[in-house]
Each structure stands twice: as structure tokens, then as C-alpha cells.
Write a structure and sequence with these properties.
Layout (H helix, E strand, L loop, with lengths): L2 H5 L3 E5 L3 E7 L10 E7 L1 H11 L3 E9 L2 H12 L3 E8 L6 E5 L8 E4 L10 H5 L8 E5 L8 H15 L3 E4 L10 H13 L3 E5 H8 L5 H10 L3 E5 L5 E5 L2 E5 L12 H14 L4 H16 L11 H10 L7
Length: 325
């Protein structure tokens, strides 16, 4: 199955973490001064699932959650957003779901992540073998799953299983230094994952990290594309370059008044894939991903800020001020 054929089946198995987000309210209040917080689903892979589901795609999360109130909170919120939970395994003991505490303040933004004893790292090869890959058109993973064992080996096992089932692999680099034992281990493992993927999405810093220097990031993206992969090289305010079929497609961004920086990458991935699943070309799909990212950073929270189809169409029809790439 080709990459586009798989995406157009519009059914995705997404590997990675679910977590709880607690974000200070109202907007503009720093977390340390807040007296109230809103709680909702978080975690990069769970966010991608929510974004896809809201845009009409089918998405199932493959992960582990803790056998406690917070784990059940995440499970309930996944169900609330229409995300498939048939491959979410509950684990007892001292492992815990991740917690993120942040604020809707752009200047001096703080996102405090609690990841000690993270339960999502306890996903095993057996968990991956239980997935019915024939139900899906493509596998999606965020890079965090590779930061520790047994999740690292388990996800590479999922890559093998996906290949055997004819599914393309979509990889969001999503490098989080705090999760890794060392930068060298991260660079080696993430590069290995990239080499086994069909579509790679990351920002300039992440590609630079994989290449061993920021100045080498663009060359790394071109190298991966030259070897047959589709690569999307995001450059923040400077837009993105999509490397596909020997072409370099440059796209800009939609300027908005942001209230926070997080969640943009997860929403971009959802908008991109949902757009491709609808039969749109790469340029239009990337622009829809960029619009989703703009929507999310302009609202509090991550999962609740993800747009549905009508919200995305409304945004694109009323925001013609796309920056030049």
C-alpha cells in the first residue's frame, strides 16, 4: 500500500502517550498565581487522535494508562472525543499517567511536565502484536515512544508488524530532551525511526538535532526525501517545506494572536492527514494543517482547542492573510 493509499483509508493506529493537562484559567494568569485550573486530555499522540477524530477520521490510540482515577479520566476523555480505546491497556503498580501543568500566557510560557515512572513507556511487544493492523490504513507515532524501554523496542516491533500488513508508517519526530537518557541515544534512535518511516514530520530544530547540528537540518531533510520518503520540514514563523516526488513545496502560516505555543504540532499532523484523506493535494493539506495549528495556539488547552470540520472551514474562509513562505 502506498503512503497516500493508506492515508486515504482514513483510519489510523496512533502509538504514544495519553496524559492529563491542567491549564490555568483565565487566560493571562501565570500558573503559580492561578486559583483555578481546567483539566482535559493531553499527550501528543492522544492529541493527534482527538484532532483526527474531530475532523472526521477514525483513530485508535495504542498505549498504557495507570489503574487509578487519572488513568480512568484519560480513558473517559478519549471516549468523549470519539477515539478508539480498544488497544489501551491499564497497568497497576506505581506507574503513572503523565501530567502537564501550563498556562495561556505566551511571554515566559511555562509547561511543567511530570513524567517520572511514566506508564506509557510500559507498552510491550505483546501489546503491539495484539493490534489488528488490517483495520487501519496507516500507523502514526510520535518520537517520545522511543525514549525508553520497553516502549522503544515495542514500537519498532509495531513498525515491523505494519510493514507486514502493508501499512505505511508516519513519524512525528517530537523530540523531548527530558525523556531521553542522552542526546546521543536520542539522535541515534530517532534517526533509525526516520529511516523506517514513509512520512516524517518535524521542525528545523528536530531535523538539526538528528543531523548533529542546526545548520545541517535542512540537508538532513533533503537526504531523507532523496531516499524515497515524504518529509515535511517545519520552520515556525517561516512556514514549511514539503519534500515529495522530487519537489520542494513551500508554504506559509496563518498569523493569529497566540495565547500559548503547545499543541500546534499535534494539530498540524491531524489537519494534514485529514486533508490528505479527503483527497486534497500536498500543498492544500499542509495549509490545512497549518490552519489547525493556528487555531490551537489561539485557544486555551490542547484537545479541547482542536477544531472540527466546520471550525476549520470557517477559519480558512475568514483568514486570507497567509504569510509568504
Amino acid at each position: 500500500m502506498t503512503l497516500l493509499d493508506g492515508i486515504r483509508k482514513n483510519s489510523f493506529a496512533v502509538f504514544g502517550r495519553a496524559g492529563m493537562d491542567m491549564f490555568a484559567t483565565p487566560e493571562g494568569v501565570k500558573a503559580e498565581h492561578a486559583s483555578q485550573f481546567n483539566a482535559d486530555l493531553g499527550g501528543s499522540s492522544a492529541n493527534i487522535c482527538v484532532g483526527l477524530s474531530k475532523l472526521g477520521s477514525q483513530a485508535s490510540l495504542v498505549t498504557s494508562i495507570s489503574d487509578d482515577a487519572v488513568g480512568r479520566f484519560c480513558l473517559n476523555r478519549l471516549a468523549h472525543y470519539g477515539v478508539g480505546t480498544e488497544y489501551v491497556r491499564t497497568i497497576g503498580g506505581e506507574f503513572r499517567v503523565s501530567l502537564a501543568v501550563y498556562e495561556s500566557v505566551l511571554e515566559g510560557f511555562q509547561n511543567v511536565i511530570y513524567r517520572n515512572g511514566a506508564v506509557d513507556f510500559q507498552v510491550t511487544e505483546d501489546d503491539m502484536d495484539r493490534v489488528d493492523y488490517t483495520k487501519f490504513g496507516a500507523l502514526i507515532t510520535a518520537g517520545t515512544v522511543f525514549a525508553a524501554e520497553p516502549s522503544r523496542s515495542a514500537t519498532f516491533r509495531a513498525f515491523e508488524n505494519a510493514r507486514a500488513a502493508g501499512l505505511p508508517v508516519i513519524f512525528d519526530i517530537d523530540y523531548r530532551p527530558y525523556s531521553w537518557p542522552s542526546a546521543q541515544v536520542a539522535a541515534d534512535v530517532l534517526s533509525r525511526a526516520g529511516e523506517q518511516s514513509d512520512l516524517i514530520v518535524g521542525n528545523d530544530e528536530e531535523f538539526g538535532f538528528m543531523a548533529g547540528g542546526m545548520e545541517k537540518g535542512l540537508a538532513k531533510a533533503r537526504e531523507l526525501a532523496a531516499n524515497g520518503r515524504v518529509v515535511i520540514f517545519k520552520m515556525g514563523q517561516d512556514g514549511a517545506i514539503t519534500f515529495v516526488d522530487g519537489k520542494e513545496i513551500r508554504t506559509g502560516i496563518f498569523p493569529v494572536t497566540a495565547v500559548k505555543p503547545n499543541g500546534a504540532g499535534d494539530s498540524f499532523m491531524a489537519g494534514l492527514l485529514a486533508g490528505l484523506a479527503e483527497g486534497r493535494d500536498w500543498r492544500e493539506a499542509v495549509l490545512r494543517g497549518s490552519a489547525c495549528a493556528a487555531i490551537v495556539v489561539s485557544k486555551p488547552g490542547c484537545a479541547p482547542a482542536m477544531p472540527d470540520g466546520p471550525a476549520l472551514e470557517d477559519f480558512m474562509s475568514t483568514h486570507s492573510g497567509l504569510t509568504d513562505a
